[in-house]
Amino acid sequence: MDEKLDEILHTLKTVESRLDNIEGHLKIVNKDCSKMNEHIEFVEKTYNAARMPLNYIKNKIEYIMHGSASTELPKLEYKEPPKDSST
Question: For 66, what's the count of Cα atoms within 13 Å in the CB-facing half-sphere?
Answer without folding.
Answer: 8
